[in-house]
């Protein structure tokens, strides 16, 4: 229950739960620590949990047929990570989720999530809103990749997620933005010019 | 109510509504016809409805700063269209939704959707599942663009959506797949070779 406090604060921003409901919720979730470099999910495995991050930083990525890594998302405190498609359909995942820092997470296991919704129907609303946000962000990213220049994409990330930029290696940010590391350095140097 | 039948059949696959709930639902939605070429939503306008398609075919696309059109989704009968981001946040849309055929739709207006959820809470679950599907499809598409060859992308579309391929011009399919029209012709010719 102590570990779940940041999650409960986060949920309170969206829906109001009674004390009994909070206790019931806590009986359905798990707390878990990961070391830096450990995987929460590996490409090819079935995603068995949805994770809320209490502390730390993760990257979600996939490796294509040529062995190239493509980063689709970074997650830090008060955000979520998992391959929702694999979780919902219980089929092998297309993604890896790896910890870039030692991380603490709250896990919603697949086996208990239905009973959680049955016990607290208003959590359906909460999860609908979370997934809406994720879907909208995913669509915005598709558009930005087409319609913004490399420089604009970096500027947008820099202004929107300054706290993430400080915590990840430059080559990972370059991968996320679809650049080479060298190109990212060039873009950043140009922006520093008066 | 008569017009809403396909929607009610579709909802029944996900949740069970009582007769009173179906009547209440029908009091909160609108039926609307569009001509071929008309817009359900124009880039820059605020999306005021979520649309379920009864008949017809639509494309969702955006135009980048260079005037280039990028198609992100086709929708036909028993599927949805709207810019969810614009709808949820009531901010100007990044997308256009245009009818490629004369189309009939059921519209869920922004002003009534909250009262709909209040009256029938289990619709939260229904919409959560629809958005999950859309989000998962959007993530799969990002991966496919990175990890499949042009030929494989066409083959996947061809096997998954044969009914859409027959209804849309080739140049639009090419835009959706990220090819030129000429390149799509070449890919199709190669696949026809014994």
UniProtKB/TrEMBL annotation, chains A, B:
Gene3D superfamilies associated with the record: Jelly Rolls
Taxonomic superkingdom: Bacteria
One Pfam match: cNMP_binding
Residues annotated as domain Cyclic nucleotide-binding: 17-72
SUPFAM superfamilies associated with the record: cAMP-binding domain-like
InterPro entries to which the protein is assigned, alphabetical: cNMP-bd_dom, cNMP-bd_dom_sf, RmlC-like_jellyroll
Protein name according to UniProt: Crp/Fnr family transcriptional regulator
